[in-house]
């Protein structure tokens, strides 16, 4: 077998792991900071955010992406925390969109600031957005987000339609006892609008206790609600993007429904993503603790290439979240970082 350093130094080779999965997608967290405090993302007492100087600079992010693009990365997603709390995000988008090989830049946001930034982001090169919205009811939304204003999110959603982001995806984390009674409303939204509603299972990311199980609800519940409403879901083609959802449409719908069930039916065999955390760590898998810091290698493209392949070399076949649900022994050490610290 060819030595790792030689393999990494060959630009003709794609970022393929030992399970044959080609990685052409990089998720970049711009900050661990967020203007909301969602129950599944942060503990009730909040987070101690990292100092600003620990965030990768725009120059550092651009340098890493240039190397990743040479290795076959074509799609980027900017995440957080909340990426729009990072000043001048549109400047970074413009720089990344100019890199040879980068074909698509998406944004995951809570949309609180999207209404005021949508035009500049579209002009800079953002093509599509994922908006987090777990409830359309203000009192409930405020409880889930610990203080958020749902009207600002809905205004951001309208701005996304206005400037022409496409596709627009709405991420709904399904939580037992919180929002399962709104599934019908989200299903109806997919009928009326050209939008992809993505229901996501609650994940045990960064939890050091079993409290998340109390909120966990398998996504079969969504299909049960379709049946209860007399709506027969029809399988459909995947919505453009990198998401691992199972897609279907309701009769006569303008939009689609996506189910992302990492716990009950994981999608690891198709994983094509790596993550770059705000403090400069390449994470080969969301759930496991393994990380590789890029900072000392920036400026040495060969070393950065080697680092990407080192990360892929230890990437496991599966994240094993289902084993956490059933309290089974894990093969690796789970991360202790919260979602806001990793990048959603």
From TrEMBL:
InterPro entries: Aldolase_TIM, Elp3/MiaA/NifB-like_rSAM, MoaA, MoaA-like, MoaA_NifB_PqqE_Fe-S-bd_CS, MoaA_twitch, MoCo_biosynth_MoaA/MoaC, rSAM. PANTHER family: MOLYBDENUM COFACTOR BIOSYNTHESIS PROTEIN 1, MOLYBDOPTERIN COFACTOR SYNTHESIS PROTEIN A. [4Fe-4S] cluster 2 binds at residues 268, 271, 285. Its cofactor is [4Fe-4S] cluster. Residues 18-232 form the Radical SAM core domain. S-adenosyl-L-methionine binds at residues 40, 81, 132, 203. Keywords: 4Fe-4S, GTP-binding, Iron, Iron-sulfur, Lyase, Metal-binding, Molybdenum cofactor biosynthesis, Nucleotide-binding, S-adenosyl-L-methionine. Its EC number is 4.1.99.22. This is GTP 3',8-cyclase. PROSITE patterns: MOAA_NIFB_PQQE, RADICAL_SAM. It holds the Pfam family Radical_SAM. GO terms for molecular function: GTP 3',8'-cyclase activity. It comes from the Bacteria. The keyword Cytoplasm does not apply. [4Fe-4S] cluster 1 binds at residues 34, 38, 41.
